[in-house]
Amino acid sequence: MTTLTETKTDFTSLIADLAKDGRAAQRKLARATDAEKAAGLRAAARAIRDNAKDILAANAKDMAAGEERGLAPAMLDRLKLDDDRLEGIASAIENVANLPDPVGEVIDNRNSPSGFGLERVRIPIGLIGIIYESRPNVTADAAALCLRSGNAALLRGGSEAIHSNRALHTAFVEGLASEGLPEKAIQLMPTQDREAVGAMLKAAGLVDMIVPRGGKGLVARVQEDARVPVLAHLDGICHTYIHAAADPDMAREIAVNAKMRRTGICGAMETLLIDASFGNGADVVAAIADAGCELRGDERAQKLDSRVKPATSEDWDTEYLDAILSVAVVDDIDAAMEHIAAHSSGHTEAIITDDDVAAKRFLNEVDSAIVMHNASTQFADGGEFGLGAEIGIATGRLHARGPVALEGLTTYKWQVKGSGQARP
Fold first, then answer.
1. Is the full-model pTM beyond 0.70?
2. Which of 6, 119, 167, 385 could form a disulfide with 55 if both were Cys (CB 3.0 to 4.6 A apart)?
3. Domains and CATH numbers, the chain
4. Is the per-residue pLDDT at 2 higher than 50?
């Protein structure tokens, strides 16, 4: 990594230079075989293990700086690396290496009326910018997913993890180079200046896609300022609807899990909708309250348990990421879906019911990236979907939705195979 760019103030030129190098490396990477990319990732995992001492020493600097800055305990926990977490990072890279290569997959094959053959084939997107906060493991996860899918990556991590990110990146590209893959396929932004992020977001034609990983403030800024296509979700306002025909024990178990297993993840349930005809709503609400959750509800929900506080209009549109839950009693499935349409962020919704007709309606008519039947919203995760590591969850309507893994990091092109046709 050159130190010259550390002092550059022309951030538009800096991003142009990085993009030029990244795009050139991506063209070289496109010629690599499936086996060569997999070997490069396994070498990167070995290099991280071999350089564990240096990586952990770098992380110790970040932890000390974070404590001095007064970072919250949760932030420090996300930042911290130890032997077990570092082994987890290396293992995750190896898992990506073992995934099927999506590049070159034929996803459509037909003959045209004019007699030539048509194939729609998966190809890499190109140069992907990843902007993320605090978690140094994202450096390795994002690099591995981009490289496995034939993309180049331009990584920009948070300042709180600067030493950890640099050490992980150094080891990762050392592994790539040992297998003859281009080092500049995976670049780490050489400056933490926020103006460089702004230049990156406006680099249309140079950067092909931006993926933000972090809090609401980061994602909102990226979505507002970007002139490059963005793959992201802003909020995870996830709903669980307990239908009149729900099994009481299942409803209680799933509702408690959906909220309380991990309250700070984007797939955590933030609103519980209970059908007015479901006879065990009080038991479900009591179980969630007994688990230590603060409840805020409408008038009918308040009647189910004295611990339910009055909800405000803002509660229905809030991603708490905490042990707080909004609860509403709805008249029927139509009212439940109307509530979801009005307040959902398009992330994940679930219905609990033994009525297959109601379940089918919910799955077909609720327009979110992930819709579930008789399962906890906490399963909204690429690993749980069998996709391996994910680069994020997408809630937009174009390109990819839900957990974005290797397939979501590809686009396609048409290959036309003729035999001398000339259009009349």
1. yes
2. 167
3. 4-231+403-415 (3.40.605.10), 238-384 (3.40.309.10)
4. no
